[in-house]
Predict the structure.
Amino acid sequence: MLTNRDIAELTAFRRALHRAPEVSRQEQETARSIAAALTADQVVAGLGGHGVAAVYNGAEPGPTVMFRAELDALPIAELSDAPHRSAIPGKGHLCGHDGHMTILIGLSRLLSRQRPAKGRVVLMFQPAEEDGSGAAAVIADPRWPALRPDWAFSLHNEPGNALGHAHLRMGPVNCASQGLKIRLTGKTAHASQPETGTSPAPALAALIPALTALGQGGALQPGFRLVTVTHARLGEPAFGIAPGEAELWVTLRTLEDAAMAALRAEAMALAHAHSPDLTATFETHDDFAASVNHPEAVAHMTAALDALHIPHSPGEIWRASEDFGRFGATPTRSAMLFLGAGNAPALHNPDYDFPDDLTPIGAHLFHRIARDLLGPR
């Protein structure tokens, strides 16, 4: 069990992380702080960018069990009077990743005092979760195959759910999503002679409702699709130039990975159809796989929740995406739960702050899962 001293030190550690947020792919100092706080049999740094993995070996052969947290903060200015508020202008830990990291540091303390009886535990501090690039980068790292887990577990805090109440369900838990940037190129002209150029304005105006109609949301069930226009730009900010170029950014969202390719192809075909006299080019960004909970991993999480008397219910599927999904690729069995943060501001709000009372709950939950799968030494 974590002692009162542990909890006080972990609270101070979390608030120090909160004061020094770093955004995706820039988490160098955060990673250093994490590595310095670990006592493990092996620490792998620079994984997939700034990722850190800590390994705790058992005495006997057995499965590898991974627990994951995220390193990155958000490019959002924090609005808070808390003494530990962000000291970095325009950046803040407004999704609770500072708390998720601290939960794993608490778990590391428990594991350092008693290693598993068999197999090994890997604590994965993943970079670049917020832009969807981190898990793929970790998996592409040549050191990943030696760390690949048989089981993978994670949690995310959930404002609006009672403090410490867990939501855990089998099957899909987070949608797949992808950002699609559409660039339309024609030819500029003098504003007094627009007919001498080729303007993308009519195509842009037609595309916005046409793309939105491809996916209008609705119930989160097989076939769910949502297309959200997030940004549009037309020409130069000048009165004397008829535009020759435009950009449209849309976020594509589906419940299943398999549906994403079809939705993207339809969106690109629409762009071509609405701009026959223009050149249409495309870029994809923020590519998130769907997160799907494996029934066996859910069973282990449920057993640990029950053993610790943590209340839980299935909860709802999240429309939002989570970069944990890629870690659940076969043969890894994975599951993620959502741990209630109480009546707190919503995630990504400028006044959000992770509740420190969740740290011991999360650390003891993960420790129980590890003990159930690997036993104490």
